[in-house]
Structures are given as structure tokens and as C-alpha cells.
Amino acid sequence: MRRTTAALGAALACTLLASCSGEGGQSAADAGGGASKGPATGGTVHVLANADFSHLDPSAGWDGGVNNFYRLIYRGLTTFGAGTGAQGVKVHPDLATDLGTPSDNAKTWKFTLKDGLKFEDGTPIDSEAVKFGIERAWDPDGVGSPYPKELIKAPASYKGPYKSGDLDSIETPDAKTVVFHLKKSFPDFPSALTMPNFTPFPKGTGAKHAFDTKPISSGPYKVASYKHGASLKLVRNAKWKRSTDKIRAAKPDAFEWTFGLDAATMDERMLAGQGKDIDAITPSIQASTLSRIKTPELKSRTLSGYGGCTTYMGMNTTKKYLKDVRVRQAIEYAIDKKTVVAALGGKQLATAGTAIQPPTMLGRSEYDPYPRNVAKAKKLLAEAGVSKGFSLTLDNRPDTKSTAEAVAIQEALKPLGIKIEINNIDTSTYYEVIGSTAKQHDLAITGWCPDWASGATFLPPLFDGRRITPTANANLAQIDNKAINKRIDEIAAMQDVDAANQAYGELDKQIMAQAPIVPLAYEKVTMVPGSNIAGAYQSAAFSGGIDLVSIGLKDPGK
Q1: Please, what sign has the CA dihedral across residues 330, 331, 334, 337?
Q2: Cα separations (Å) of 55 from 12, 311, 396, 461, 526?
Q3: What is the pLDDT of residue 14?
Q4: How far is CA 174 from CA 106, 131, 237, in A?
Q5: What pLDDT does residue 3 have?
Q6: 329, exposed or middle or buried, with CB in 10 Å at 0-12, 13-18, 19+?
Q7: How far apart are CA 119 and CA 117, in angstroms?
Q8: What do you get for the CA distance between the two ends of the chain, in Å?
Q9: Nearest to 108 by CA among 195, 194, 177, 185
């Protein structure tokens, strides 16, 4: 569960999400989709990117740009599948033999490791390695996903294995068995285990983020060379056994990243398709490039689908005018989603937002609670006694796309007499500011992406009033509604994960009745892989980016 980045697709896959339906996860026939022959064994896949990875150490990295990459060099007890649609979001055993055995009302989980598992240096991947790797999440230097600390029992004073030693709530009765004791019932624990800071490592290794420069691989590839900000090369890990891994195809002999390229340069190179670029993949192309994808050859290898996040405008319910639900509902009715979509680059790059959860979510309800109706908006403001108008401040990042969205909102609210003052905040400090309850203004444009295809990683972080914090606050609406809080607890206690996801879809409606946010759009990702790339499809688990574990080359000899 993370905020969206300033530009979806800035890295190969921007932010982690999950999906089972909708357009997320499309494939292109000539890029290795279902209708074409899969990749051959051998060769090097080239990845062109504008930015380096945040961290190679999975206890610190947690953005989608690196989560996709991690699966090439790291394995966990569980992982997402490989494939389009539902295939790519289903959770599978990875190092574990199955998805675990729960007991004590899903507060205790037991996992058994497969045989023949080894790290790149030949060290066995045993229960102690799993325990140690997860304990690293408590290290004060770790800034990865919150799930280990949120779910697993630990003393308040525990500071990870380097400073505090072993954690008693993760038991290792033998070399192949790991038992977790959780703080509360959590039936979807196997999904949480897909997060990167549940990665095992040999006991005692990796202090002070040593893995940021020299990782220890448990996956099919290992780091051969790395120049921060410039390049990274992966080669095969001889200790990885294909017989133990049903997810990773591992067809290429190597992967090579080139960092620091601007978007326009990458677009030009992919459309030209010369030299090694026929073996390359890149992030989403720019809106300005879309009109140039006209030839049959380019169209045949174009991938396009939902990124899996929701772009929205939060409305601070503690502010003078926004305390009144009728005012918030009036704003909902007045926003012209068509102009927002146009600001994002048009229908090829976005569709209008309606529900809170994006189309790629399990259990999502398809509904539109506030279709545009300016007359109804004016009536609501009259009922609230503010028909003469007022001013609101909209927090915004000063990039081109966000500013275009802000202006679209500003124009849409003018007929209501609502004056919008756009407050531009530097992108580097934007989330720090809007996440501080004392600094946040009336409105803010942002976005949210789930960690896996469940409302559990989408709705509670944004709307549980008990999670409001002075800093790093995700509940931008600062809504603290007893009925919503109660329903969140009821759904969290459900032992049937599918039923819980359906319930989150209905909770979406209950929350929107209070109008705490305006769902603006569901953005899309469009990519043009090289002509020699095979097995390429958009992964619903990685913001619509290309799933790295399945791609390869049609002809490694080209």
C-alpha cells in the first residue's frame, strides 16, 4: 500500500499492486503473448530505465520499481504467479511446499521448506535463514514494507537481529519448519509473505545494508556487476534449481540495465528498434508518443492496460467547509472526470474514476455514486448554507500532469462559486507535507496502489480513523467514522478471504456515501517492447509493468 509516484511508469513498474480482471495484464502477440511462441533459452535482455532502483536490499526497498526486479534474484516462502489476469495475482508457494497451515484462528502459521534450496554461495536455505531474513525487517535501518512488524508478535524494544538477536515469535523447530505467531488473526498471511522484506538470508549477513551493493541471491540470477545510477548486470545463479521453482522461467542468460535515460530517448529507441534495442524493454511511453504507434509492426508489440492504482483528490474533513458531507458531495458531483482524463493524456492513458478501488481489484464493486450533475451540486451547497461560494486550497505537485489535473478541478468548481487556490509543493517533500495533519490544506491530489489484490491493503489505510497519525498519515480525509471503523474490524475478522474481498467492495460504497475523496481516474500503462522480446505481458502484480520472470528472447542469436 503506497502512494503513486509522480509519473506512473517512471521505473519499469512503478508501484506494487495486484489484479484479477479488467485491462491490467494484457499481452502483445509478437511480444510473447498467449498466441505466440515463448522465449528461447539464452541471450541477454536489456532494460532501459530513467532511474536506478531504490535499494537492492529487500529490507529497505518497497517501491514497485524494485519489487519486480527482486523476483529475479530473491525468493520467499510465497510469491505471485506468472501470467496475465488472475494468473499473475494468485499467490503460490515459492520456497515453501504449500501456502502454510494456519491454527489458533489463523494467528499461528506453519510452513515447510522444499528440499534442495541453496543461496548463490552454496549455503542451504533453511528455517534459520528464513527467520533471520524476516527479523531484519525490525532493524532500525530498515524502511521496507510494514507487514512483518504489523503482523508478527515482537517486543516493543526489539530492534532486529543485529542489535536484539533472535525473535521468539518466529520458531524453527527443525531445518525445514518455520512457525509464525501473529499479533492477531490474519487469514491472508500467505499474501503478506510475498512482500520483499520476508526474503531469507544466511544468518549474520547483510548488516548496514551490505546487500545494497552485494546481494546474496536465492533466485535464478545473481548480480555480476553494479554501478549505482549507471548500470547493473545479472547472470545465472548456478545454485538455483529449476525443479524447485514453478514460477520463474529464467530463459535469458543475463539481464542488463542501463539507468539515467530520459523518457524521450527511450521512446525514440524503442520505436526505431535498432541494434540491441530489439532485445530491450522500457517503462511506459509518453503520451506524446502514442500517436506515432501507427504501423502494424509497432501495434503488434504494444502492451497497454491499467496500472492498477487510483488517482484521487483527498478532502480534509476537519476543515471548515469540508466538515459538512453535503459540501463534499457537491464537489463530487461537480468534478468533470472527462477533463481530468484529458489532463492525463486521454482515454488511451486513463479512464474516469468512480469507485475507490481500481478495476484490477478482487471483489471490487462496479458503481458510480456521483455522476456529474452541476445542478445537484448547487442544490447541496444551498442546503448547506454556502451557496454564495468560498475558497479552498488544493495541494499539488508542480509537474505537468498533476498541474493539469489541478487546473481541471479548479475549472470544474468555478460554476459553484468555489475558488480553488493551487498550492504547489516540491515533489521531493510532497508526501511529507500532505501526510502531516498540521501542514495539510483542504484538498490534495495523490494516488494509492495496493500491495496485493485485496481491499485490506487499500481501504483501511486510507479510511480507518484510528490510523490517523500526525506524520506519515495516509488518511488524507482525516475521516474517523465509527460505522466505517467497525466494518473494517468485522471484515478483518473474516476467515474466508474471498468473502472478505467481496465485503471490501461493499465497504467501498459505504465509504463513498461519506464522500471523503474524489476518485479521479484509473491510469493506464503503454509499452512497446523490442521486436525480439518474447514472453512479455503486463503484470497485474507490478503496476502493469512487464513481468521480468517470464520474458526472454525469440532468437538469442540475433
Answers
A1: negative
A2: 15, 26, 27, 24, 26
A3: 34
A4: 22, 12, 27
A5: 62
A6: buried
A7: 7
A8: 41
A9: 185
- pLDDT of 294-305, one tens digit each? 899 999 999 999
Grid cell, residue 256, equals: 542488463
Neighbours of 374 (CB within 10 A): 15
Grid cell for residue 186: 490474519
Cell numbers for 281, please give them: 524493454
The rounded distance, in Å, linking the Cα atoms of 425 and 437 is 15
Residue 174 CB partners (closer than 8 Å, separation 6+)? 127
* The pLDDT of residue 2: 56
pLDDT more than 70, % of the chain: 93
Helix ranges restricted to H, 50-109? 64-73
Mean pLDDT of 313-342: 98
**Comparing C-alpha atoms, which of 429, 442, 420 is closest to residue 314?**
442
Amino acid identity for residue 259 in this structure: F
Beta bridge partners of 294: none
Highest mean pLDDT among 77-86, 525-534, 540-549: 525-534
pTM of the model: 0.87
Q: Helices 497-512 & 482-492, crossing angle to 10 degrees? A: 170
Q: Which residues pair with 525 in a beta bridge?
A: 305
Q: Of residues 25 and 65, which shows the higher confidence score?
A: 65
CA–CA dist 51, 557 (Å, integer): 29
Half-sphere exposure of 4 (CA within 13 A, CB side): 25
| 91-128 per-position pLDDT tens digit | 999 999 999 999 999 999 999 999 999 999 999 999 99
- Taking the alpha carbons of 10, 11, 14, 19 in that order, is the dihedral positive or negative? positive
Q: SS3 for 313?
A: strand
Cell numbers describing residue 243: 525443479
Q: What is the per-residue burial (b if ≥16 Cβ within 10 Å, else e) of 29-63?
A: ebbbbeebeebbeebbbbbbbbebbbbbbbbbbbb
Q: Which of 6-10, 57-61, 251-255, 264-268 is predicted least confidently?
A: 6-10
Closest CA to 516 of 369, 334, 320, 332: 332
Where does 59-101 have alpha helices with state H? 64-73
Q: Nearest CA to 79 among 185, 181, 220, 253?
A: 220
Provide the grid cell at 539.
Answer: 503484470
Let me know the angle formed at the C-alpha of 13 by 294 and 55, rounded to the nearest 5 degrees: 145
Q: Whole-angstrom Cα distance, residue 169 to residue 148?
A: 11
CB atoms within 10 A of CB 469: 12
Query: What gap in Å lies between CA 260 and CA 49, rounded to an integer?
Result: 6
List, for residues 446-503, the tens digit of each pLDDT value.
999 888 888 999 999 999 999 999 998 999 999 999 999 999 999 998 999 999 999 9
Task: Name which of 558, 541, 390, 544 is nearest 454 in CA terms.
Answer: 541
CA distance 329 to 53: 41
